[in-house]
Amino acid sequence: MYDPPNPPEILAAVARFLKEEVAPATTGHLSFQARVAANALEMMRRQLELGPAEDAAERARLQALLGMDGDLLTLTAELSRRIAAGEIDLTTPGLKDHLWASALAKMAVDQPTYAAYRASLAERGQPEDER
């Protein structure tokens, strides 16, 4: 356990500094690189905040779908194997929902402002996350 500021708060502060101070005070390639660095830090902050819960949810979905236990990497590999072998497909109960949930969880970390992600959340009646 970390005392304040915690790692996500530190990442957010550095990202803000790069976006609000460095990028506007520079031009060209340096300004662009400051924005890229800020975006990378924001993505890492979201991964720290959202990743553990999303990984646990994904693991639970895979265990239910596959009827087996294992770590997330093993379960994902088994899902891929079964899909490639034709053992399961989109008609398999739970597969489509799992794939959508997994894709949305990844987008919440990687591209939370992406229009298609926000539209998909709206279609599902889920609130938009302002991360």
Give the arrangement of secondary structure elements:
Elements: H1 7-25, H2 28-66, H3 72-84, H4 95-110, H5 115-123
Could you characterize what this model shows?
With 131 residues, the protein is an all-alpha fold. It contains 5 helices and no strands. It has one domain. 10% of the residues are buried.
At a glance:
The protein has one domain (7-123). Helices cover 73% and strands 0% of the residues.
Give the terminus-to-terminus CA distance: 22 Å
Q: How many beta strands in the DSSP annotation?
A: 0
Instruction: Provide the gyration radius in Å.
Output: 19 Å
- Determine the number of helices (DSSP H or I, runs of at least 4 residues): 5
Indicate the structural class: mainly alpha
* Shape estimate: elongated
Mean pLDDT value: 93
Helix proportion: over 70%
How would you spell out the order of helices and strands?
HHHHH
Which runs of at least 5 residues are low in confidence (pLDDT < 50)?
Answer: none
Largest sheet: none
Number of domains: 1
Q: How large a portion of the residues is in β-strands, by DSSP E?
A: under 5%
Labels describing this entry:
131 residues, mainly alpha, 5 helices, 73% helix, 0% strand, elongated
